[in-house]
Amino acid sequence: MQQLAKSKLNLSFDNSFARLPEAFYRRVEPTPLPAPYLISFNRDAAALLDINPDAAHTNEFIETFIGNRVPEGAEPLAAIYAGHQFGSFVPQLGDGRAILLGEVKNKNGARWDVQLKGAGKTPFSRFGDGRAVLRSTIREYLCSEAIHHLGIPTTRALSIIGSDAPIQRETIETAAVLTRLAPTHVRFGSFELFHHRNQPERVTELADYVIREHYPELNDKPDRYTQFLTEITRRTARLMAQWQAVGWTHGVMNTDNMSIIGLTIDYGPYGFMDDYDPNFIPNHSDYNGRYAYSQQPRIGIWNLVCLAYTLLHLIPQAEAQAALDTYQHEFAEAFGELMRDKFGFSEIREGDAGLVAKSFEILAANHVDYTTFFRRLGNIETTESETAHTPDAVRDLFIDLAAFDAWAQTYRTRLTGEGSDDDERRERMNRVNPKYILRNYLAENAIRKATDERDYTEVDRLLELLRRPFDEQSAMETYAAPPPDWGKHLVISCSS
Ligand code: AMP
Ligand code: MG
């Protein structure tokens, strides 16, 4: 008889979601894929599960995180949810290709959902094949880690395991499984499903679960449901402000892609802007720009309203309204603070909002690279105007120099007004204005190398680069550059 080798991974499961009634999910086994191999491993996320980096190359790791071997203690399931997609309600969605293995409890007592994305069909796959292609797993893997290291709440990514199994999309591609980690994957849409089915007692059960596990500070509060709605409103408002501040667009802000704990979740046709453009739409199937960059704050509250409707048997309507009404203020406050820091002001003063708006106006008119602008803004000196000889001058990014000079005059006056110190401010600004972001062309380079040449080194290189987005990394200077012509308007397929 074959002797089972002792597990090196030693995952310690404690599956709170699986302890809920089966109304919330279906039990399902991952469907194996042939001859899996490691594509990339993320030691930062591994540490969350107490996985030793040496384990990454073992058979056990590869077989486990492609779904070929279900670890002891796991209780694999697909969660059920609904959602508003592009404004229309879809009564039933659910994990169509993501399988939750269970929750791993680490040595600090924190529990992490371990979810395999692309691990095969589930009862919610509808017409899909339950798979993910290598291209789309690389995009999610790199971006979720990039967003994390920018200080924005998000799901994490542990690994990509590949297989040569053919997957039909527009062309034939190959399969991969992304392992995604989060405290929970419950979405706004999870609540909407039971509300739509007229099962308020299920909504209550789910709210109680989410509060117990993820908002424990509200547990004993008599108005805990109101406070829960207020808190998710606050988190969502702040998340939107953070996305806006780094120039990132989700692309598919359907309510099934909205995390109930305020994480960035479900990376599809997302994008960081290169040139500043409020109408930036990364998703080429979003013909009306519903999820354009400038629309995200508005969609955030639209989605919260959908969530609030499901809770009206638990919260008096006036209280629900009051909770939602905090959104505008939370967003404005968070955005104001982020802009204060990005512009290097030590305090918010009257007139700052106008200065910020004017800045965005000239960025748009001059097609200035958003990230480069802020990184170089730190080089401005209050006493001396930039000239053609100043290295890395912000001024060089503009076509209309007269407009820039007039703006810079106002900006310098604002800085002088608070006695700003050039060196101290530059240092402070460089800690909030990233030098390196996951530009689309960088991701595309890594994807092409991986899919065309089986060369995964670029994936690892980007992962390493994006762990320290605010640091000068002299050997990686070229990765800060705006896209070359070929990389400016890449069409990101929404198939994944
Ligand atoms: P998304 O817009 O990527 O968040 O996906 C919307 C829904 O479609 C989710 O319920 C997914 O689980 C499902 N889905 C996406 N791709 C597939 C696939 N290849 N097979 C099965 N279900 C899928
Ligand atoms: Mg989704």
Question: Averaged pLDDT, please?
Answer: 96
Name the helix and strand elements from N-terminus to C-terminus, one letter apiece. EEHHEEEEEEHEEHHHEEHHHHHHHH
End-to-end Cα distance = 41 Å
Helix tally equals: 14
- Give the cofactors and ligands: adenosine monophosphate, magnesium ion
Shape: globular
Number of E-type strands: 12
Please estimate the helix content.
Answer: 25-40%
Instruction: State the major sheet.
Output: 6 strands, antiparallel
The residue ranges in which pLDDT falls below 50 over 5 or more consecutive positions are none
Describe what you observe in this structure.
- The chain has 496 residues and is α+β, with helices and mostly antiparallel strands.
- Among the domains are: 170 residues, no CATH class; 75 residues, no CATH class.
- Strands 2, 6, 7, 8, 9 and 10 form a six-stranded antiparallel beta sheet that branches. The protein has a two-stranded antiparallel ribbon with strand order 1-3.
- The two termini are 41 Å apart.
Labels describing this entry:
14 helices; binds magnesium ion; binds adenosine monophosphate; 496 residues; alpha+beta; two-stranded antiparallel sheet; 12% strand
Short description:
With 496 residues, the chain is of the alpha+beta class. It has 14 helices and twelve strands. The chain binds adenosine monophosphate and magnesium ion (MG).
Write the topology of this structure.
Layout: E1 25-27, E2 37-41, H1 43-48, H2 59-64, E3 77-79, E4 83-85, E5 88-90, E6 98-105, E7 111-117, E8 132-133, H3 134-149, E9 156-168, E10 172-182, H4 188-196, H5 200-214, H6 224-246, E11 248-249, E12 271-272, H7 296-310, H8 317-342, H9 352-365, H10 370-377, H11 401-417, H12 422-430, H13 440-453, H14 457-466
Antiparallel strand pairs: 1-3, 2-9, 4-5, 6-7, 7-10, 8-10, 9-10, 11-12
The structure holds adenosine monophosphate (AMP) and magnesium ion (MG).
